[in-house]
Amino acid sequence: MESNYSRIGADLKTQPSDNIETNVYSQRWRYIKATGNWSASGNIEGISKLHFVKQTWSEPDSKKVAVHEFAHTVTLKLLLDNEAQPINSKNFDKKFSTFPTWLWEAISVYEANQFDDPKTLPYLNGHYPNIPEFNDRAKGGKIYTCGYTIIEYILSKYGQDNLINLIKNYGDLKTTLGVTDDQFCKDWYEFVARKYLHRSLT
After folding, report:
1. For the chain, first and last CA: distance in Å?
2. Do 111 and 67 touch, CB atoms closer than 8 A?
3. CB-based contacts of 15: which residues, under 8 Å, 6+ apart?
4. Of 57, 73, 85, 126, which alpha carbon lies 20 to 30 A from 197's?
5. In the structure, what pLDDT confidence band is assigned to residue 200 with cuts at 50, 70 and 90?
6. What is the pLDDT of residue 58?
7. 37, pLDDT greater than 90
8. How far apart are CA 202 and CA 190, in angstroms?
């Protein structure tokens, strides 16, 4: 985490919290007991505290899990810094609840370098997920296997500043990038098809 502190801060143009309390659990039941979180392998509490299970089902590298959760704290810090001060916590919590899962997780997947080769993802064979699918953690968790290339695509086509603006705009693709949700997914898939699947859709 320390080696990624400055890098992720620079990527998201945000100064991370000075001190990050990190809680690592060697057993899942201890994590559940401490956090009450049954469905995940990691979570954050605000901008300066994170929890994660050392060995997860989907990610054997605990270092990447730590970086993933740390990236969440930096994303949250960016959103808080963008609010008018002083912050009304109740109003912010209500607003933050609308932040889209797909963007929240894609950022952390990318920053933790949790890359899944699209050639290994059978659901990308001639079909691409839509935003509702990416937002649904329960049905296959496709955002975790596609998140890296989604951010890679945004940076490649729109640049870092527009990624930051997209975060500040709570994932509003139309306002920030001038595309509909469906068009964004189609364009992302074409990017993936050309770069990783070695085929053109046009």
Report:
1. 42
2. yes
3. 9, 77
4. 57
5. low
6. 66
7. no
8. 9
Whether residue 57 has pLDDT greater than 70: no
What is the percent of the chain where pLDDT is above 90?
74
* CA distances, 122 to each of 31, 117, 125, 192 (Å): 32, 11, 6, 13
Q: Which residues pair with 43 in a beta bridge?
A: 51
Listing DSSP states for 87-148 in one string gives P-HHHHHHHHTTS-HHHHHHHHHHHTT----GGG-GGGSS----HHHHH-TTTT-HHHHHHH
Question: Token pair 């401490």 is at which residue?
Answer: 34
Contacts 24+ apart (CB under 8 A), 16-20: 16/47, 16/70, 16/73, 16/74, 16/77, 17/47, 17/48, 17/73, 17/77, 18/48, 19/48, 20/48, 20/49, 20/50, 20/70, 20/73
Give the C-alpha distances (Å, rounded to integers) separating 21 from 18, 169, 178. Answer: 10, 28, 39
For residue range 133-155, list pLDDT tens digits in order.
Answer: 999 988 779 999 999 999 999 99
Q: What is the pLDDT of residue 155?
A: 98
Could you identify the residue written with the tokens 């509490």? 45
Is residue 162 packed enough to be buried (19+ CB in 10 Å), middle (13-18) or exposed (0-12)?
Answer: middle
